[in-house]
Recover the amino acids of this structure.
């Protein structure tokens, strides 16, 4: 089997790429395996490379070495590859948030190359989506909008400053956006039947559980159950919202009395979201703008490499 490491050179501000390369080289000498390293050159390059990769009959594992955005690109490329049944998706989390790996608990095992090489694939779901009826793409982890997306946009600006990259940029982004408290007026259609309308501060739809560097927005989500999980937090006062942010991050917001009044939590298979204005949507950590979003879970679409010692 081919072992291919697709490295995003600017993920996580480019701090761990050299370290990962040395770990790959060291493990290759020790375990006597051959490998390919490919460094991406621009946005979309990881997707193109994965889509065009010609795997041998024994197959290949394509490791996305970056954050959730890099994982998203490689997953889309695998799905587009004519021999996708021969390909396994892997992740070495060296990005900013690395939230998809938080579904499994022990993120450090994902950075251990021998443990990755000795891992085994599991079947996971993916999300097929279209924005404003454009062509379909895949997401692996999470969609979020409203206050969430405004914070992501703000954190990307903050991340440019020295010492403020990483999860701290998201926390600072929250503090900045609390002054304007951005929210969305949405019409939401669940499984072509139930309709929810209203003003929502936080909107998260997860195949995985976390986003934003550790916010456990959809704590009941499972990446292999054929379902999506949605958390909606209704519009509320600034002070009330501030009091709930900690519980939202920990995945316990539904347990509080205030949370029970403000939170709508649903499990679903298909979803349409229509915003009353063109708005920012964060998809696997990357920002897009759209008026309408249509989602469908695709059970068991991808094989994902689970490092040795991690069970799911």
């Amino acid at each position: 089997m081919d072992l291919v490491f697709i490295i995003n050179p600017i993920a996580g501000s480019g701090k761990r790429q050299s370290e990962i390369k040395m770990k790959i080289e060291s493990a290759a000498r020790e375990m006597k395996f051959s490998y390919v390293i490919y460094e991406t050159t621009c946005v979309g390059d990881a997707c193109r490379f994965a889509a065009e990769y010609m795997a041998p009959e024994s197959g290949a594992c394509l490791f996305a070495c970056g954050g959730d955005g890099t994982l998203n690109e490689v997953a889309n490329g695998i799905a587009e590859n004519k021999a996708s049944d021969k390909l396994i998706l892997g992740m070495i989390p060296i990005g900013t948030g690395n939230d998809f790996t938080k579904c499994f608990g022990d993120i450090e095992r994902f950075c251990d190359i021998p443990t990755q090489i000795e891992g085994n694939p599991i079947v996971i779901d993916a999300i097929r989506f279209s924005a404003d009826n454009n062509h379909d793409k895949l997401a692996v982890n999470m969609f979020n909008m409203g206050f969430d997306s405004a914070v992501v946009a703000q954190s990307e600006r903050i991340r440019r400053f020295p010492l403020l990259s990483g999860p701290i940029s998201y926390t600072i982004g929250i503090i900045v956006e609390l002054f304007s408290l951005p929210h969305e007026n949405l019409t939401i259609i669940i499984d072509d039947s139930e309709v929810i309308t209203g003003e929502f501060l936080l909107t998260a739809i997860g195949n995985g559980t976390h986003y934003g560097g550790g916010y456990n927005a959809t704590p009941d989500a499972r990446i292999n159950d054929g379902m999506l999980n949605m958390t909606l937090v209704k519009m509320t006062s600034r002070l009330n919202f501030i009091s709930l942010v900690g519980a939202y991050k920990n995945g316990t917001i539904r347990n509080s009395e205030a949370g029970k009044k403000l939170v709508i939590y649903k499990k679903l298979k298909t979803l349409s979201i229509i915003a009353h204005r063109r708005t920012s949507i964060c998809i696997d950590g990357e920002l897009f703008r759209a008026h309408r979003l249509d989602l469908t879970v695709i059970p068991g679409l991808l094989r994902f490499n689970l490092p040795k010692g991690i069970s799911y």
Summary: The first strand starts at residue 2 and ends at 7.
